[in-house]
Amino acid sequence: MYTHSSAAARTYANVSLESGVMGASPHHLISLLFEGAELAVRMAIRHTRERDLEKKSAAVNKANVIILDGLRAALDPAQGGELALQLDALYGYMVKRIMQAHLKNEPEPLEEVLGLLRELHEAWLGIGTAARPPASSLSHPIAA
């Protein structure tokens, strides 16, 4: 469903979020992008409420970059099929709602996007957990 972890890593670094990306798995990189997007949207909500237009604009821009150039760009419709196409549409919807909130100075659309990002992030983390073998199957102690 997601591809090109190097593109995701570049995007993550370009929006000046914390590093630690170079050795991260593709799954972890996507998780970091979700974290960054959630943080940017939370900051946009805060700055919208505080009426700090400059900081709100920066947070909105950061959220859009992470969603479009990170999460959306990492989708692989050939591998992810219908789910990748649905996620692509959802990411487009999120950016539209973020821009509506930005133009109208309303936090409610941002709160909706934050909820969607949290749900997707939680599901993504669940996929990672389900894909990992149980700890007991990773190593078997040898009886002496």
Average of the residue pLDDT scores: 85
Main sheet specs: none
Say how many strands there are.
Answer: 0
N-to-C series of helices and strands? HHHHHH
Helix content: over 70%
Distance between the termini: 45 Å
Shape type:
elongated
Helix/strand/pairing class, anyone? mainly alpha
Number of helices: 6
Return Rg in Å. Answer: 17 Å
What does this structure look like?
It is a single chain. By secondary structure, this protein is mostly helical. Helices cover 77% and strands 0% of the residues. It is built from 6 helices and no strands. Helix 3 (53-72) runs antiparallel to helix 4 and helix 4 (77-104) runs antiparallel to helix 5. The longest helix is centred in the middle third of the chain and has 28 residues, at 77-104. The protein is elongated and about 45 Å long. The chain starts with a helix and ends in a 6-residue tail after the last helix.
Topology readout:
Blueprint: H1 5-14, H2 26-50, H3 53-72, H4 77-104, H5 108-131, H6 135-138
Comma- or semicolon-separated keywords:
disordered C terminus; 144 residues; single chain; 77% helix; mainly alpha
